[in-house]
Write a structure and sequence with these properties.
Layout (H helix, E strand, L loop, with lengths): L15 H28 L4 H27 L36 H20 L1 H10 L3 H17 L1
Length: about 160
């Protein structure tokens, strides 16, 4: 039925970074293919016995070098610099403070601040009605601004009840 056909959408999620990553990956694959063809040309004409000898020589060489690096790291000839250095852990100064000690009575919202908050809130409401693009840009720059305003109002009302 023509009503329920899926429409194909162009993916705009990618972009320049995806294109660059694709080019880099393509270059890496091309280099691997080039290296593989050169090695195939080099070793194609050798018989199996000679290939096995090359493989054993390669494994002994790489394995020997790895053992050398390992022993050199453990038993280093220079005694001035140890091969393994253990640094002490630095514990932050206030790691066990929860921040509750900051919530004291001096975080009160006075009448003057509350009136300023009300003026700001009405300004933002009128901006939302008249110039929604400007309102959206403000909220995009400061995503939790209106949440903070509501929280300050709640603090004021809660201290009024006490």
């Amino acid at each position: 039925m023509w009503l329920f056909k899926k429409q194909k959408r162009k993916s705009t999620a990618g972009g320049v970074s995806d294109k660059v990553a694709g080019k880099i990956a393509g270059f890496g694959i091309a280099m691997q293919n080039w290296f593989a063809t050169k090695m195939n040309k080099l070793f194609r004409k050798m018989n199996k016995r000679r290939l096995k000898i090359w493989l054993v020589v390669f494994c002994i060489t790489c394995g020997g070098y790895s053992v050398y690096l390992l022993t050199n790291a453990i038993v280093s000839p220079s005694s001035t610099q140890p091969s393994i250095k253990i640094d002490p852990v630095n514990i932050p100064k206030h790691y066990n403070n929860t921040g509750d000690e900051m919530l004291s009575t001096d975080n009160a919202v006075d009448e003057e601040t509350f009136l300023k908050i009300q003026v700001f809130k009405s300004y933002m409401d009128s901006l939302k009605q008249a110039k929604s693009a400007q309102y959206d840009s403000i909220l995009a720059a400061r995503p939790y601004l209106m949440d903070s305003v509501l929280m300050l109002e709640q603090i004021y009302y809660s201290q009024k009840q006490k």
